Amino acid sequence: MQKSNYEKREDIFNLYANNLRIYLEKLGGVVRIDGVNIDLTKSPIYVCPLCRRMYAKSNIEGKDPVLTREHNPPKAIGGDARVLTCKTCNKFFGHSTDQTLINDVIDEPFYDKEPNASIDATFNIQGHNVPGKIIPSQNLLLLELDGLKKSKQAQIKKYITKPGPGHADITVRKNDFREANRSALKIAYLEMFAVFGYAFVFHENAARLRDAMKNPNSPYPICRVNDKVDENLLGMSIIKEPTNLVNYKIVVPFKFYGGRQRNTAIIIPGPSEKHWQNYVEWSKQRDQISFTATVYPKYQGVITNPECVFDYYGFMGEPVERPVNY
Ligand SMILES: [Zn+2]
């Protein structure tokens, strides 16, 4: 039998509440709220990965729960729901930020001059707005009108076919690159949380990323690279070159109508100041840099296994410094 939406929320809640408990136990830490020690086995808590507010289980209940499943990447481009985020954060990011990223990715082939790539446009012809597409074709740009009300067809056809002076305005959307990057970063950040749990969220470098994704005037850069990614590197991989230090690369597949797919890659710093410096350097070079990366080998079970709970801190060599508390 298919699970109800509540049961799906509950599964995620339990998984990450358990991860939080393991993480804190490993640190020898105690959760204290209003001066009272909280036993996380009796009162599980989920911390929203985007704002770090704490939520008890009652927050997944009801018709309009505070914690909801977040599709990552957005459902419109084929994402699935593996984490919960809170209402405040959903409101903050809204749908328009994600839509900016989707538009940016959809339009990229056109600006890259790929064959047959088109871009949506609006044609204003004699005061009538008509949606359509611009399609490059050899040295020409073809204009294709999509929907045209029957009543206007004859009028516009006459205008277009009749020789003589006239003009039509063409508008194409201009995507806010920075906003699209913030959305891409959020997707990669949540992917990191999905895999590594709270060991990632409570790290200082993750706090810098949250600032970059929430605050348009943040001093912290966002490192998204144009990446003609091969299919083998979808998901999470670890960058080994140009440095032997562990930084992460998240490759997000965007699935469009018509079976098309386009990928975008976002770099996430590893757990030290040195990793952050690499991240900052790479964000300046973006398109010139090429990475050697290997796919993260053990995707499943990290957050539930006490032995793996600090995997974010380096599992391929010497672990770097771990937190003493958060
Ligand atoms: Zn939140």
Helix segment count?
7
Strand content: 25-35%
- Give a short account of the largest sheet: 5 strands, antiparallel
- How large is the radius of gyration? 24 Å
Number of strands: 15
Q: What general form does the structure show?
A: elongated
Unreliable spans are 316-320
- Our measurement of the CA-to-CA distance between the termini, rounded to an integer number of angstroms, reads 41 Å
| Class inferred from helices and paired strands | alpha+beta
Strand order of the largest sheet: 11-14-13-12-15
Helix content: 25-40%
How much is the average pLDDT?
82
Helix and strand string, N-terminal first?
A: HEEEEEEHEEEHEHHHEEEEHE
The hetero compounds bound to this protein are: zinc ion
Total domain units: 2
Describe this entry's structure for a reader.
The protein is of the alpha+beta class. It has 2 domains: 5-105 and 177-313, no CATH class; 118-172, no CATH class. It is 33% helix and 25% strand. It has helices spanning 5-27, 87-111, 150-161, 177-196, 198-201, 204-214, 273-285; strands at residues 31-33, 36-38, 45-47, 54-56, 67-72, 80-86, 119-125, 128-137, 140-145, 168-172, 224-225, 235-241, 247-255, 261-268, 292-295. Helix 2 crosses helix 4 (177-196) and helix 4 runs antiparallel to helix 6. The longest helix is centred in the N-terminal third of the chain and has 25 residues, at 87-111. It starts with a helix and ends in a 31-residue tail after the last strand. Bound molecules: zinc ion (ZN). Residues 48, 50-51, 53, 85-86, 88-89 line the site of zinc ion.
